[in-house]
Amino acid sequence: MPLVSSKDVLLKARAEGYAVGAFNLNNMEMAQAIVQAAEEEQSPVIIQASQGAIKYAGLEMICAMARVLADASSVPVVLHLDHGTDYKQNVKCLRAGFTSLMFDGHELPLEQNIAMTAKIVDIAHSVGLPVEAEIGSVLTIEGLLSDAEMAEIRALEVPKQFEILRKKIGPRVEAHIARPEEAKRFVDETGVDFLAAAVGSVHGLWLDIWPLRVDRLKEIYDAVQIPIVSHGSSGVLISKAHAEAKGVELLPGEGSLKDAIKVGYTKINVATALSMEFNRAMLEAAAKRPGEKDPRKLLDPARKAVVAKTKEYIRLFESNGKGGGATCAAKGEVAGSQEIKRGEE
Ligand code: G3H
Ligand code: ZN
Question: Is the entire prediction scored with pTM above 0.85?
Answer without folding.
Answer: yes
